[in-house]
Amino acid sequence: MIPTFVKFGEHYMHPTYDTVPFWPLLILYLSSLSFYNTKMTIMPEFTPTEWMLENHKDKGSEPWEIYAECVRLAMARQGGFILDDHTVREKLAYEDFMDGKSDQIIINGETFVYPVGRLSSRSDGYQAADDLETHTAAAIKSI
User: Do the strands 4-8 and 38-42 form a parallel or antiparallel pair, or are they unpaired?
Assistant: First the structure.
């Protein structure tokens, strides 16, 4: 396998595709009125060895899990990426919580619940900005 990654220029917005849909992200990019450059890095071929599987067996129970984690770590180190060990399922649950689609979320074993009556009732279906700011700040602070 040949690990490859793309890194965007050093602007104020860095994309993440795990929970934010493509079209809103594209709109943010196009609205930024800035030029972006990208850098594609192609790393050397990464072949698993018995030494790697033996010395990194704490990273998984199956050889493919160990190999995948070693490739992930090598790419993160080479690209200067911050590793996030939350699962996609947890990220999607967080997105639903922040969008108001669920009233509670469990993160790292801790349960966060919106208070009763958290959203103001408007006939047009939008939430009051002060409610969103208060609850967004509280949820982000707790993570």
Answer: antiparallel
Report the distance separating Cα 43 and Cα 74, nearest Å.
9
Closest CA to 50 of 30, 22, 70, 72: 70
pTM: 0.59
C-alpha angle with apex 19: 13 to 24, nearest 5 degrees?
A: 55
Task: Please count the other Cβ atoms lying within 10 Å of the Cβ belonging to residue 44.
Answer: 8
**3-state DSSP percent of the chain in helix, strand and coil, to 5:** 45, 15, 45
Residue whose tokens read 């890095």:
41
- Please say if the pLDDT value at position 64 is more than 50: yes
E-strand stretches of 4-85: 4-8, 38-42
